[in-house]
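S2.1 Query sequence (Cupin domain-containing protein)
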Amino acid sequence: MFEVGAGESASLPKGKPHAFLIQSDEVYSITVITPGGFFNAVNKMNEPAQKIEIPSDDVLTYASMDLTKTMEIFEKYGVHILSPEEVAEQMPEYRA
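Output structure tokens follow.
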């Protein structure tokens, strides 16, 4: 585990489990993800906005979708989301 402060950056290797704990009320981030599998997966779980407002709770988005279905879609694009059991095994510091 390590901390990244204002003006600093981090590089995470492919295949290495990771998570973020944001301890600030305000965060600005520039994220580069290569190859683009992550965004291809997200695009499979969205649709164009019909109006300029936050969707109601009954609208499914990648953030509110069933985690099992989300994991299946991401796997198709080469992105593996850890299950709760894998988090407990590979990243015990993030146990609930």
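The two ends are 17 Å apart (CA to CA). The helical segments are 37-43, 67-76, 84-90.
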